[in-house]
Amino acid sequence: xxxxxxxxxxxxxxxxxxxxxxxxxxxxxxxxxDILGCLAHAQMLxxxxxxxxxxxxxxxxxLQSLHREYLAGGWTIDVADEDVHSRIEALLTERLxxxxxxxxxxxxxxxxxxxxxxxxxxxxxxxxxxQVGDAARALIAKxxxxxxxxxxxxxxxxxxxxxSVGMFFAAHAQALLDNLILIDAxxxxxxxxxxxxxxxxxxxxxxxxxxxxxxxxxARHSGIAMADAxxxxxxxxxxxxxxxxxxxxxxxxAADLVFFTTQECGFFSIGKGFTTGSSIMPQKxxxxxxxxxxxxxxxxxxxRTGLYATTIGLPSGYSRDLQDxxxxxxxGFRLAEQGLAVATAATPTLQPVRARIVAALTPDLYATDxxxxxxxxxxxPFREAYIRVGKDLSAVATPxxxxxxxxxxxxxxxxxxGLDALAGEVEQTxxxxxxRQTGLMGTWDRLLEHK
Length: 451
Prior knowledge:
mainly alpha; Fumarase C, Chain A, domain 2; 4% strand; 17 helices
């Protein structure tokens, strides 16, 4: 029987299948977090006198056992279950009887699932931040390894100016690191406890929302109940916005490597085990992982667009449309996590192919450098130098490629990438994330042990 059933009002099977859909599979992700929310709610109800001490203690012990058993694979959510909330309540009722029926006092499924999603979001965003850090470290290590190795720089997919392998990897590392600002903003939005907002308008009971929020490790205890309820979808969109920036940067990195590893360029080789073959052409080694990494950005955009579109035009208060935001959010995180994992694993295997790179460093790449030489040595305006060089590109000589890379010494140029500072920024930023996550895990551990 559904937890909302009054008896004799069971849903038609077709309607049940449609309304539940595959939601139960995503509830498997949320189950441990829903139990955390239940623990805080039970302790809060006991504190304010809405639960007897004995009932509260029984519920806490029962929920702690369910949490341990779930992580150990002792139970799960199945298609026959309406959702994780129904499953947990059924298990508690089997074991505890009457006290289990009191757990839902002062709570709606709406604020219950919203709380579980927020808890999961905070945990998942911290995990993504750590993965971004790992990817940035791998890219910076590669930049150090080949810091002054020359490489053509492209605009419009045409060779334009000299660059370096060090700049290539360091630039992608910095882009990923910048995204931690967005991830932090998404975390802050998710860090307000919606528990107690009920079905959007609060409840007629003396709940202590601040205490429940404190038990769960939220930075802010509550807002206006209707605003908390209406935030479902918006806060999820903020997370996918942040992750979308990560996915987009990975896509650009992948697109560069798809191009650079073509036989026409051949600037990099990809390590064994990180390419695939052809079912018909024995000689092929295909950069499939980078092509898929590039393509997954489009798939991610579909999730992000679907999530945003779901909330357009919804009236205040809960609407069942919001159920579908759960799958879009979780799938978006999965795509970002997978992309970061493969990029981090593949980066150390990439090796520059010097002969192919040097062959592509044709004299015309140094045309701008020649114009700057005329500016410096003859004191003529840049526009005049630009025209003179452009009229006779054959006069541009091929310099020492490695010397050019080192001689560019303004901040952020190939000879002064600032890799130590970039690496330091990665470690400082990740240390703050680790401290935040350690504190959160400690709060949850105390809740699970009832200390």
